[in-house]
Amino acid sequence: MTTRSNGSPHLPSKTRKVANTVLDAAVKGLEVSKDVITAAAPIPGLSIALDLLVATLKKVQATESNSRASESLATTANELINTLKELARQIEEEFGEYPAESEERRKVRDGLTSCDKLIKRVERLRSELDAICSEANKLSQRGFFTRLVFSGRDTEALNEMEKRIVEAHKRFQTEGDVTVEIIVTKTSNDIKMVIAEQQKILAAQRLSKEERVLDSIPRAEDAHFLAAANTTKARFQQGTRELVFDCLEEWEDAQFENTEQGNWPVPVCVLVGHAGTGKSIIASEFSRRLQERGRLGASFFFTRGVQDLNSPRKVFSTIFYQLARSQQLLRGPANQEKPPWRICDNCR
């Protein structure tokens, strides 16, 4: 046994300094980790459990007892902290798939941090660490002569505390063959299933509402190029009018290319020709080709003597209706809680 100038039983000063360095690093690391862990996983009692672990190490550090035993205890405490950090990371990952500030994210986070099984695990860990901290407190309160005469007991006490931390760690991580990771995963999956069902119901309700709005729009049902009233305009003979279609398709491509580059294209193409030269047939065939390429927004064909098709009275509302049907972007995603402006809301 070596003795300091004041007679206290200790290992050599170099070894003692190493132990103090290890304990200092452990305490500082735990204090930083506590904020990270509790921010990601604010489970009731977890913050207190971490405080107790930090307090235990500080009390051990104050005793300046057996250096190797103190280092070993600090290492064991760090292993427990690593498990808690991994738990916090897993919890954060589970709700992190949802956008920040979203209701879904809040539900998953709240559901995980209020899970009874997790709370019970944390409460048991807190209780065990509380008892260990009490033992460390007794050790730190021993007087100089007590430590001088019974120095071996300090080592035994430290070893016993380390053993109890190891056992508490194991019970927290795995109890009844169920790991804490499994609890988090199962709880999260259950919550996400409920959220998914709720989203389906909301999407169905929103779709039903949109359908009612769409159905209320005044429109000419037979204006579309595929309508029965326009069958006579769909008698295009393949291989004819190629020069005209080359010009039309060149104009079509320019609309998309220029838009992608941030330039505004020429928005209107006017097909000019004498009566009976096939303008309607060309327009019908061009509409068909556009639809095949997924580029047709709407079509309106006037017809003499047919109600709603012989005047421009319902042109705009019909185009609005068809656009709302063909362009999902104008309606917003079905699962979006607050979709953007939708054309079908503003054309009645």
From TrEMBL:
Positions in coiled-coil regions: 70-142
- Spell out the InterPro entries in the cross-references: MLKL-like_MCAfunc, NPHP3-like_N, P-loop_NTPase
**CDD domains to which the protein is assigned, alphabetical:** MLKL_NTD
What protein is this chain from? Nephrocystin 3-like N-terminal domain-containing protein
Q: Which UniProt keywords apply?
A: Coiled coil, Repeat
Q: Does the keyword Mitochondrion apply?
A: no
Judging by the UniProt lineage, the source's domain of life is Eukaryota
Question: Where do the Nephrocystin 3-like N-terminal domain residues begin and end?
Answer: 252-331
**Source organism:** Polyporus arcularius HHB13444
Any Pfam family from its record, for instance, is NPHP3_N
Whether Cell wall biogenesis/degradation counts among this entry's keywords is: no
